[in-house]
Amino acid sequence: MISKKLKALFDDDDMGLLNTPKRTKPQTSSDRLEASFIEIVDFYIENGRIPVAGTADMSERKLGVRLRGILADDEKIEALKHLDTQNLLQPEKPPESIKDVLQGDELGILDDPTGILTIKNVPKVIKTAEYKARQRPCKDFDKFEPLFKDVQAKLRSGQMHMKRFMTEQQITKGEFFVLRGQIVYVAERGTDYRKHGKRDARLRVIYENGTESDLLSRALARGLYRGGSRIVGEIDLFADEREDIGSEDKESGHIYILSSLSDEPRVANISNLYKIGFSTTSVEQRIKSASNDPTYLMAPVKVVATYKAYNMDTHKFEHLLHRVLSGSKLNITLTDKQGHDYIPTEWFVVPLDIIDQIVHMISTGDIVNYTYDPSTRELKEI
Length: 382
Prior knowledge:
29% of the residues lie in helices and 20% in strands. By secondary structure, it is α+β, with helices and mostly antiparallel strands. The chain has three domains: 30-83, no CATH class; 123-232, no CATH class; 251-381, no CATH class. Strands 1-8-7-4-3-9-2 form a seven-stranded antiparallel beta sheet, with helices on both faces. A four-stranded antiparallel beta sheet has the order 12-10-11-15. The chain has eleven helices and 17 strands.
């Protein structure tokens, strides 16, 4: 029992100075995520639009980048659904065609001034899907045999070499390829046409074993995408496909490929792990604080490759790249230096040469017809 004097002291505490303050509950990672999303919702309600990541307004830019990160993470979307009163968590639809990626097609990549790609010019002999190309003996192989011997000799001497096949645009008359270990030669290419929106042409392909086939360009491309190669000399007509860039063309940013230098065993032991992203500033500037940023796995990174983009919506370019590689996305939970858990985004487990091939296919438009199969490490036609 307390004394009367002590009781009187408590009773006279009109200012509440003797009250025990309530302890605030430590904020969890879920609390922080919800609070950050509520800021985005408040911005939308106040301005009638979502925050833009590319604006010069730093406060809006911060919210825009934050929203982009949330939309790229399925677990975050699921955790925030109960707060999404404005339907902000609807995933951004990936570009359906290369027209969505190229802003106005300033380079004229999709132009067809000659009209050869319109359906009205389809030869009548190619009007049935039932026709199948067949390999048969080449009756005039004596005309092509010296070409194969010359190529084989130049490969041995180093005058010619093999490069990974990249895009269907490389299948032109006079080109040599390696298909399933055998050298093939494109002797003829018929008139290009479109069928179901896809470009194609009938070929005459000669094989080094003395046979030939009249398969379609897309059929040859399908085979070459599965590890096929082009045979090139000292001058490669496809070595620099962006030589036509002029002073009037506007650089949009950079697509970059990074590898992690993390010593975290769950990261360091993963082969073919790469981050794919884009930046409107220099990549070196973007990654200078990588060791303190969960985006870069809280560790230094190495720049493996960069690609300049011109006249292009680089964000849509990146989004299309991520859609193609969605099945190979890194799916682990890591912990930052403050002890908070996070799930990395924009990191994929895929061979570097496949990434390079996909980037080239996006720039030419071929990729809209393909997807990547992580189990076989092959690009497959949709």
